[in-house]
Amino acid sequence: MSAASVERPHGDRPxxxxxxxxxxRNPGYRVEIIGGLILVSPPPDAPHAxxxxxxxxxxxxxxxxxxxxxxxxxxxxxxxxxAEDYAVPDLAVVDGDYRDRLxxxxxxxxxxxxxxxxxxxSNWKADLQTKVAAYADVRVPVYVVVDRKHQRLHVLTxxxxxxxxxxxxxxxxxxxxxPDSIGAKVTxxxxxxxxxxxxxxxx
Length: 203
Fold this sequence. Notes:
alpha+beta; six-stranded mixed beta sheet; disordered N terminus
């Protein structure tokens, strides 16, 4: 168990100070710093939220939101790859003692993250490229991407350097069982999740 870090004044962290200003001026937007660059994502649309809720259900049903692990939305992940880098995945499975892993600016050490998950929006390339490297660099064991643009679900495991050694792409009609390392058996229905995330449902 590690002690919580003392937060440094944001004046000493110019990118974080600017990121926080952007969040204050643009409520609902997600602001992250990856590779020393500020990334700003628009507020999610209703189907994005629908897909995220559909994803949360099997994690909760598997008992992952308890004493050993927690299932959280929008929790900051500190990226030691840059002086002020951090990401905010849509969904994460973290160790139950994550509160002891606070670094600063509401972000937590990557070691307590068992899984991170993103549901793509208009900036889908960041989820499929930039964040792959960011999450692999800090050895997050499992990264799941719901690719609404291409109607696929990506499961990346076995981080090696700035990539994942295993990258499986799943289509509607498949059921995907996630690695046991997250703490419980979780199976995702690809069609159900992608259907929830569609702007317009197919008749």
